[in-house]
Amino acid sequence: MDQTMGLGQTFFGLFLAFVLGTLIGIERQWRQHPAGLRTNTLVALGAAIFVDLGLRMGGTINDIRVVAYVVSGVGFLGAGAIMKEGINIRGINTAATLWCSAAVGACSGAQQWMPAAMATIFVLVTNTLLRTIVNTINNLPMVTANDFIISVCVGVEEEKEDRVFNVIRKLLKQLGYPVRNMRIESVKEGESKIIFNILSGDINEEDLKDLLERLKHINYVKYVNWSQGAKDH
């Protein structure tokens, strides 16, 4: 098939998949689901690329079968890229990117170079420019009708407050808890407290107990307590 045929339709199809996948992903990202903005956008793009390639190849049984083999084979690679670390899931974006890379490779192998180039641009935009949007969404409050604020207070030696603050921040990031309004407040001379908030929907009772125990065993921590705040709407 002439590569110039239907390039406008290919571009529009990829653009529409990008926009709609982004809209779906924004909602998932806002609710702090593992498969968030970039993952949903990449999956939508990958599906659009494969379908466009199938249409360009004329829809013959053998051609479509080859594409199907690629899709299923890359699915196993993607599954191997996904890892679970505690309650945190990693590698979903990598798996989705692998799927899109397979689609780009399939287009290139079918001598559909312009669609392959357009697909590559959309994938790069998703993995670079959307990263800023992801960070912005992650800092927005996500509250449901049943959520309430859990406020955790950690007492520390004043001269060690910055060190303990960084240790706690790394621990929370490692455990995958979305933390809001983390700050240091002075209590009295020689003593400070580190306060941060977690929504009840982001942590269950057992995980909260485990977190409090971990905080108590950090060097220079004097005490750890928590309180339940009112629902935030």
List keywords for this structure.
single chain, 233 residues, alpha+beta, Alpha-Beta Plaits, 4-stranded antiparallel β-sheet, two-stranded antiparallel ribbon, 7 helices, 6 strands, 58% helix
Give a short account of the largest sheet: 4 strands, antiparallel
Give the terminus-to-terminus CA distance.
56 Å
Strand pairing plus helix content: what structural class? alpha+beta
In percent terms, what proportion of residues is strand? 15-25%
The stretches of 5 or more residues where confidence is low (pLDDT under 50) are: none
Shape from CA axes?
Answer: elongated
Q: Helix proportion of residues, in percent?
A: 55-70%
Radius of gyration: 23 Å
The count of strands amounts to 6
Mean pLDDT: 78
| Spatial strand arrangement across the major sheet | 4-5-3-6
Tally of discrete structural domains: 2
The sequence of SSEs as H and E is HHHEEHHEHEEHE
Number of DSSP helical runs: 7
Explain what you see.
This protein has helices at 7-30, 37-56, 61-81, 92-109, 113-138, 161-175, 205-216, and strands at 83-85, 88-90, 149-157, 180-188, 191-199, 221-228. It is α+β, with helices and mostly antiparallel strands and 233 residues long. It has two domains: 7-138, no CATH class; 149-228, Alpha-Beta Plaits (2-Layer Sandwich), CATH 3.30.70.260. The longest helix has 26 residues, at 113-138. It is elongated and about 75 Å long. It starts with 6 loop residues before the first helix and ends in a 5-residue tail after the last strand.
Put the structure in a nutshell.
Keywords: Cell membrane, Membrane, Transmembrane, Transmembrane helix. This protein is an alpha+beta fold and 233 residues long. It has helices at 7-30, 37-56, 61-81, 92-109, 113-138, 161-175, 205-216; strands spanning 83-85, 88-90, 149-157, 180-188, 191-199, 221-228.
